[in-house]
User: What shape does this take?
Amino acid sequence: MKIRKGIPVIDQHDKNYMYGGKFGGNFIPETLKKPVEDLTILFEKLRKNKEFLKQRDYYFKNYVGAPTPFIKLNNLTNHLGGAQIWAKVVAEANGGAHKIYNATVHALICKKAGKKYIVGDTGAGYAGKMLSMAAKKFGLRCKIFMGAKDIERQKPNCDAMKKNGAEIVPVHTGSKTLVDAVSECMRYWVSNCDTTHMCVGSTVGPNIFIKICAWSTAQISRELIVQVKQEFGKIPKKMKLINCVGGGSSALGFWNSFMDYNKNQVEMIGVEAGGPKNSKLHAAPLSTNAKVGILHGAAQYVIQDKEGQISNTASISAGLDYPGISPVHCFLKDTKRARYTSATDEEALHAHQLVTKFENISPSLEPSHAFAEAIKIAPKLSKDTVIIVNSCGDAKKDRDILKKRLGKKI
Amino acid sequence: MSLIKKAFQICKKEKRPALLTFTVAGDNTHKNSLEILKSISPYVDICEMGMPHNTPVADGGQIQNCSHRALKNGIKIKDIFKITNQYKKFKFAKPIILMGYFNTIKQFGEQNFINQCKKNKVDGLIVVDLPWPENKNFAAKCKKKSINFIQLVAPTTSNERLKKIVRDSHDMVYYISMLSTTGGKLKVAPKKIIQNYQKIKKLNKNKNVVIGFGITEKTIASLKKADGLVVGSALCKSITDSVNRRKKPAIAAKKMVMKLKSKIA
Assistant: This one.
């Protein structure tokens, strides 16, 4: 399996939409074949359309707020001693996380497709919140599918969705988390695909949703590569891009523009959810030798049992609590372009504490997993190594969990 | 000739559509699901049996309930084959079609799965999330072992796709009546469904085309022009109701199937 240069990684699939002949594809019910094909044709047209690109850039600049800041975390760097730690503060985007890019693009596509209804899934509630924002902005009716367990633990985002006029559909099946929300959302689309546009909240699902999402979040690295060159005059000789991965949407956006650099120069590190310490319910298919299976329409490394039943996972971070992972990340793992590891709930909490103690940013529990890895490796690295962490979400949504676990008020 | 094809021939002679049922393997227990199959068999032409999966993307609430119950009771693939094997020894045994999601087969091993099907006298397979052309390879492997791979066709299927799907199909084609997961309320006029059905028949009148999704005691008679009609969720609901009332699900299922049969006989 080989990754090619000069071709966007999302386009490196074969005619069956498989990456490396092994990951992805469209394992979907017949009913969805046509809507998926229609969407594929529409998106391929739109991404080449100058007018559409102009529109995207306009909303990214004036609605999402581009570029998001790129800052050095001086105090944290001094405290740890070793590599320089920087952050791309994507949490500064409108709504407080990277999910706004995908939501905005889907709302624009929905308009172009002439549909008035948009539905989506959400775990941490950010994808849902952003979709409800975008729907409101573009005059679309919106329904969000969310696991009952997640509704409980991510209340602030649910409040925001309701305020934006979206209907939240609680999902009570299975583990009552993201995996069930995505299933229910797909089932809803099977029944309503003639009138309704579906937005998958991450780089998972049938191929076209992976593409649209990664194409949207790519804005992050389009900004970052310019910011890095401005700051250092060139791409530093030793750079590490650390990102948390659940479905993998922020990481793919954060890495995209750096894909063609040699991995010895620009290393990409994905950090999965290790779950509670000593737990076996890791939501970490890439760092725990999971087998390839099919989940939500795509082949991927997925946490499952011998019979092919998808296993329950557990993580303090609802956004990473997903048994599967983007097929593109599977491809990056097997081609060795990216390296994947995991951080436990406790390590993420500790990282959140340390970062907020020293710096004026407040990463949510998802990017706190990425910070945990940065904190782990920075002291062992030379001072000319540049670590950049994607601080892709804001901790406001986690106030209840943080209060419970750390006795802390935000 | 395959047993599936034969079953349709018998129905044609009797000038009625074939009655196909769907129940979930291992629901609510291994024993009961076998009992259910046996009790309904005298009135049914082909039995579909669901292989429960815990992240189904095309099943409605009723079938999800049954699958959940079966999984909770610990049903495994090897048990499903055991059920078919035991069932096939029964006097009134009908052709049996296993229906499920591709990950179940992938983890078991494609060829291994097909071999076990053969060994345990499974007549056909429906794989919900393995559409055409993704299913070409697998369907060919099934054909080699004389197992019917059943192609699905939906209202959204384009004419061009339809032609190719029917061309590549084996003895039976399954037409999904409407845009819905299983067990939805029939939201399309039966006349319209029959029109679409005839479109498929016109392409090749030798293929047996069955209609499924949203078929109940109330709606079944209106679709009896078809080669076959599948009742799943309505039957699953009667099983659930019976289990909840601590009664014998095999009796409830039999009652319902007899009623269904009387409407189309």
Observations:
- The interface with chain A takes residues 53-60, 64, 68, 71, 76-77, 101-108, 128-132, 134, 152-158, 161, 176, 179-181, 184 of chain B (CB under 8 Å).
- The two ends of chain B are 25 Å apart (CA to CA).
- The CA atoms of residues 96 and 122 of chain B lie 6 Å apart.
- Chain B has one domain: 3-264.
